[in-house]
């Protein structure tokens, strides 16, 4: 019996042994393309006509561009599964995939611990105002001249989590160790067991009463710029804002203005609207902690993500279903 084909979009960096097991049940092929235009032409040429499943990395966007309707429409009819190696999957048009009968998976909880670690690092750094003095130190000015403003302790502060998924719940536990109390807003209230006792509040109350606002929600049409000028105006003066989700859930122009006015005291960002480009107003502000999208940048987490994604490919080939289909396709 002829083995099915799997398309590798990107590369395997760590889980080589696990990936080797795929070659035992499928033929693995890789695109020769180096750009979106070339990839579309390669699809049209019939090079991938027997591919059943694709393993996709976040970085493969450099080859394919977004997996949008244009790309989905040129994929061969044989493609039934796209296994994405990432928790966020805003690079993939799931609606268009569903219309074509293509099932999509992600690695929903593999990233939780590492991303929440970076989240907590940014909260502490932004609250304490460390960045300004770190810059001054490297310039030979010790803490700075004039001295930076005093920072704030995390103890007793109210952490507001917008999007209480796996990362948000993990963050809540870490924040508790620093004496912070958590409240959250979600599309729906969680069970007492899942919420860990965190207070469920409305979106408006979250904005008005949080000392630190952490964004931990997926990016989609409904959440794009969910935090903008109107929302900043509702927040406590001197609030700290942290984002490890996707850059575009915040209107960066509005954030820069809120920082300049003092409405937002500091911010900690791991993600940006137009990565790798960063808003010049954020770079220029010494009170903003900036990290270049390193939420999952550890050997352990990258390996865990690859193994999980390979598991989705294997299940797709052997059983015709996915281990972790994306939320929008749970009932598909």
**Could you say which structural class the secondary elements and strand pairing correspond to?**
alpha/beta
- pLDDT < 50 stretches: none
Please summarize the sheet with the most strands.
7 strands, parallel
Shape: elongated
What is the CATH T-level topology of the largest domain? Rossmann fold
Q: What is the residue-mean pLDDT, rounded to a whole number? A: 96
> Which strand order does the major sheet show?
8-7-6-9-10-11-12
CATH architecture of the largest domain: 3-Layer(aba) Sandwich
Distance between the termini: 28 Å
- How many helices? 14
Describe the structure using short key phrases.
single chain; alpha/beta; 14 helices; Rossmann fold; 12 strands; seven-stranded parallel beta sheet; elongated; five-stranded parallel beta sheet
Quick structural overview:
With 332 residues, this protein is α/β, with parallel strands linked by helices.
